[in-house]
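Run: sequence + (alpha-D-glucopyranosyloxy)acetic acid -> complex structure.
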Amino acid sequence: TAARTPPRISSTGLAARAAVVLRDNDTGTLVTASPRLYPHMWSWDAAFIAVGLAHLDVGRAVAELDTLLDAQWRDGMIPHIVFTGATDYFPGPDRWGTDAAPQRPRHVRTSGICQPAVHAIAVHRIVNVARRTSAADAELARRFAERAWPGLYRWHRWLVRHRLPDPSGLVTIVHGWESGMDNSPRWDLPYAAVRPGPDLPPYVRLDLAGVGHPGERPSDDEYDRYLWLVEQMRRAGYRPDEVVRTSDFLVGDVFGTALFALACDVLAKLGDDLGQNRAEIAALRAWSARARAAVAASCRPGTGLARDRDVRADRWLDAETLAGFAPLLCGGAGTRVEARLLDLLDGPRWAGHPALLAAVPPSVSPHSPDFDARRYWRGPQWPVLAWLLGWAFERRGWSQRAAGLREQGLRLVSDGSFGEYYEPFTGEPLGSTRQSWTAAVVLDWLC
Ligand code: 9YW
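>> structure
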C-alpha cells in the first residue's frame, strides 16, 4: 500500500465525523467499542469514550460511566466487558460463565476479569471539560464525581487487595486481556508456559470476520491460550485469590501499574475537592507512591525501559514495547533515567523512526525482532495510546510534548476512518474502523 498524504479532512469535518461515530455506536445506555468487531462495552474503552462524549453532551458522558459502574462487581472489581444482548462476539457471557460467581452484579452479564484502572482519569477530564462548557454542566459533572467516588475507591482497593501478590509491587494480571494489549510481545514468554489442556471446550472464533485479514489479529494458538485461562478462572469460580493462585498466567503489568499510580493520584485529588473520607484519600496516596516506586524499580539498567515481571517464572520480561516508557507517565524514576527514556522515545527506535508517517510511538519498536507492522499490539500505532501519553505528559508539565503528540495523533487519524490501529509506515487503518475510542480521543484533541 502506498503511503497516504495527510491531512485529507478539515478539523471541523473530522470532529463532526467523530461525533457521528459515537452516535452511531450508541445503544442508548452505552457506546459499543466498535460497530461490528466489539458489540459490547469494554471497561477502559468506556473511560476514553466518556471523555469524548463530554465534548458533545456532559450528561451522556456521565451516563456512560454510570452504566459501567452499575456493572461493578460487589467485591469492587470493574469487569472488562459489560455485555449487551449481541451474540456475534466470542467469548460471550455463556463461555465466561460468571453467572455462578456470587459477587457478580445481578442485573447485567459481564466477563470475569478487569482492564487498566483509567476511570478516575476520565472522571477528572470530564470534570475539567464540563467546567469550560457551562455552570450547569460543571454542576452535573461534580455531582457525578461525588457519587462515582466511593465506587472508584472500592475498585482501586480491590486491585490492592487481590492483585499485589508479588514483592515487586507491580499490579498483577491473570490474562493478557487485562492489560488491554492482548497479544503484545510483552506476554510471549508467560503465554509460552500456558499449555491448554485436552479438556479445553471447543469454540469458534468470531473476531476474524470483523477485520480485513487474519494477520491483523492474534493467532489461533494465542486464542487457545486465552480461552484456556478463561477456563481456569471459571473453574476457580472467579474467586479473586483462587484465580491468582491457580492461573497459569500471572504477570506484573508495568504499564497498568503506572496508570494505577496516576489514577490513584487523580482520585485522591478529586476526593480532596469533594470532601471525601480522609483515611481513604490517604490510602490512595500511599497506593500511588507504592505503585510509582514499583514502576521505577523495574527499570532496566542501560536503556531505563521499564519491565513487566513474570511472577510464575520469577523473571523480568524484556520485550521492547511502548510499555517500557511507563515511568514517563507516572514519574518516580529520577531525572537521569527519564532523560534517557525521553531521548529513546524521540529517537530512531521509536517516534523518531524516519519511515513513520506520523511521529507517534508504535506499540513495538520497528527495530525489535518482535515487530509486525500490521498485527494488533505487535507494531501498529494506537491513537488511544498517543492520547494517554499526551494526557500524562501535560500533567507532568511537558506541554510541548503533549502538543506534539496531539498534532501527530491527528495526522495519524486524518483519513477520517477512525481505525482501531494503524500501519505505521503507510498509515493504513487496521482492525475495526469507526472504533469508538479513536473517535473519542479525536474529539478531545480537537475540541
Ligand atoms: C478483543 C475493545 C478492546 C480493547 C482492548 C483490545 C481489544 C478485545 O478491543 O480487545 O476481543 O480482542 O485489545 O484493549 O479494550 O476496543
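>> summary
The longest strand covers residues 308-310. The chain has a mean pLDDT of 97.
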